Amino acid sequence: QYTFLSLAQPPFEAINTFQVKTGGIPAAYGNALGGVVNMTTKSGSNEFHSGADVVWDPRWMSETSPNVVSSYDLSGNKNQYGIPQQMILHNNDNASSDFKLDLWGSGPIIQDKLFFYAMYQANKAGSDTYGLTTSTDLKTTSPYELLRLDWDITDNNVFSLTAWNAKQTQDGIV
After folding, report:
1. Nearest CA among 137, 136, 133, 130 for reference residue 67
2. How far is CA 139 from CA 6, 61, 123, in A?
3. Pairing outcome for strands 169-173 and 135-141
4. Degrees (nearest 5) of the Cα angle 116, 166, 32?
5. pLDDT by residue, tens only, the chain of 174 residues
């Protein structure tokens, strides 16, 4: 079982800053030799804010890839001269769709002291893929939930807690 913790992709709407650091990296980032990707999530403030985003990418609006003739047959079939038979890869039958709904809100819990940022993303995706010897019909649902709490203990000390759920469910026929 994979947790995909290192592959969690927060929704774009939840990202506050994104940095890529290379070369001489400060000690604050540990033993990083090649580089560091640093991302922070949004946080609340003394004003309430909320919003919603919808992204819909239906199958009928997607361009299809052309079919490709391959000179290599994985099944080992050869013609009468011992040359591998050509196969047509049916790329134009491949299809995918995607629907995402983001709902978010932020604001104070205790004025000037405790703030929240919360987000929920509903995601439903589907894909039909045809390979040389297989076909896959895959349906994915992956709700994404994020909560960030910031507590201003003093003017110079802040305690932040970020929690998320990025569980993904896939159902498919291979």
Report:
1. 130
2. 22, 18, 11
3. antiparallel
4. 85
5. 445 555 667 888 899 998 888 877 777 777 777 778 888 899 999 999 999 999 888 777 767 666 666 655 555 666 666 655 556 666 667 777 888 899 999 999 999 999 999 999 988 887 777 666 666 777 777 788 999 999 999 989 999 999 988 777 767 665
CA distances from 64 to 86, 96, 172 (A): 22, 10, 21
C-beta pairs of 11-14 under 8 Å, 24+ apart in sequence: 11/100, 11/102, 11/119, 11/121, 11/144, 11/146, 13/51, 13/53, 13/102, 13/104, 13/119, 13/121, 14/41, 14/42, 14/104, 14/117, 14/119, 14/146
Show the tokens assigned to 4: 């995909």
pTM of structure: 0.69
Torsion sign, CA atoms 154, 155, 156, 159? positive
Nearest-angstrom CA–CA distance, 168 and 166: 6
